[in-house]
Amino acid sequence: MVKKRGRRVSKKIVTTKKVGLVVKNLVVFAILFAVSFILFNASTEGSLAKNLFFLLFFIFGALAVALVIVYLILFFLKKMRA
Predict the structure, then answer these.
(1) Are 60 and 32 in contact (CB under 8 A)?
(2) Residue 74 domain-assigned?
(3) What single-letter DSSP state applies at residue 43?
(4) Cα–Cα nearest to 26, from 77, 75, 71
(5) Is the CB of residue 40 less than 8 Å from the CB of residue 53?
(6) Which SS3 state, helix, strand or coil, does residue 5 take?
(7) Which entry of 20, 43, 63, 71 is 20 to 30 Å from 14 by CA?
(8) Which domain holds residue 31?
């Protein structure tokens, strides 16, 4: 018995769901970045809290920049496909 190969279905990347997810995460990390930056500037000099908030705003800022890059990649992929 010979099995017939069915028509191959190409996988389509669902960019609308991915773009929505990236934008949602970008907003969350941008807000966390802003809050930790404000708390970093409000904390007293030489305290443990100042070091903690510096680390937090550095991490959240790096994640926000990474999400902006991902958003731009998805945006240009969508524009090239159209």
Answers:
(1) yes
(2) yes
(3) S
(4) 71
(5) yes
(6) coil
(7) 63
(8) 27-81
Domain count, the chain: 1
Alpha helix (H) residue ranges in the chain: 15-42, 48-81
- Residue written as token pair 């800022």: 61
pLDDT digits (tens, 9 = 90+) for 6-65: 666 655 655 678 888 999 999 999 999 999 999 999 988 888 999 999 999 999 999 999
Q: Which two tokens mark 26?
A: 């970008």
Q: Helix 15-42 vs helix 48-81: angle between axes, to the nearest 10 degrees? A: 160
Q: Specify the pTM.
A: 0.74
Q: Which two tokens stand for residue 54?
A: 């510096």
The Cα–Cα gap between 62 and 71 comes to: 14
In-domain check, residue 71: yes
